[in-house]
Amino acid sequence: MKENFIKYLFLFIFIMSFAEFIGAESNKIRILSTTSTRDSGLYSFILPKFEKKFNVKAHVLAVGTGQALQNAKNCDGDILIVHATHLEKKFIEEGYGVERSNLMYNDFVVVGPNNDPAHIYKTKNITNVLKKIIHTSSIFISRGDNSGTHISETELWKLSNLDPSIYSGDWYMESGQGMGATLNIAIGMDAYSFTDRATWIRFKNKQNHKILFEGDPQLYNQYGIVKINPKHCKNRNHSLANNFYNWILSAEGQKLIGSFRIDGERVFMPNSPE
Q: What does the alpha-carbon distance between residue 235 and residue 72 come to, in Å, rounded to a whole number?
């Protein structure tokens, strides 16, 4: 009799603990994200509004876009925000995602030292900028980490019919790190680098570096939000992910994105009318 009582007591404790765990998990959402959105401070600005509205807790796992997509394939989160449109569409085509929408956009810029050794300032287009860098063998620090920023930079070299990889380790160097660390290396080496505008504005260690090229339409930087396929990731919080997806694309969510500022400057433009 005593043994049965102890057995049922342990069973009761297990059931109650499991129910508490399920309840806690149903109240949480894990966002798989690119680092630029986190590092800009955008999530700190908008997520408290979402958490309050839905009485939930949001967590952000921020890595490069390539790793974020892999994390989503591994079912390590509930929803995905990255910036490599063709890879996002491929993610859906391969069955890992079910729906994607344009979320917001900004642009990339080329930063470098004030003395501008490659003379890229006021150059007309990004192709000529890259040609000047390659022809002058000016030090260029790439992220080299398969992030959205690195992917965009690589595509621009290809579109310009240039291959900097043959100079790898010479004047073209890959940090293999995030944007902040890459910029710090560029600052220390008086080098050029390719970054998204939001990260640069928030970056504090600018020293004698500044934006030397911007405004080319090819520097457009589109962010997307992707729903993860429930059939592939069965144990994720798809209900709350749907709520977040709909909310951030709604007039309320888009207005919040548009109102976010860094040092008074608007850094993300919402895709939907505010």
A: 13
Q: Residues 140, 111: contact at Cβ < 8 Å?
A: no
> What does each C-alpha distance from 14 to 10, 24, 95, 193, 235 come to in angstroms?
6, 15, 36, 54, 20
- Alpha carbon of residue 190 to chain centroid: 26
Residues 6 or more apart in contact with residue 168 via CB below 8 angstroms: 174
Q: How many beta carbons lie within 10 A of that of residue 13, not counting itself?
A: 10
Q: Which residues pair with 63 in a beta bridge?
A: 34
Compute the distance between CA of residue 107 and CA of residue 98 in angstroms, rounded to an integer. Answer: 27
User: Residue 10 and residue 111: Cα distance in Å, rounded?
Assistant: 62
For 110-163, write each residue's pLDDT tens digit: 999 999 999 999 999 999 999 999 999 999 999 999 999 999 999 999 999 999
* Residue 100: CB atoms within 10 Å: 17
Distance of CA 171 to the CA centre of its chain: 27
* Exposure string for 17-26, b = 16+ CB within 10 A, e = fewer: eeeeeeeeee
Residue 178 per-residue DSSP state: -
What tokens were used for 215? 């405004």
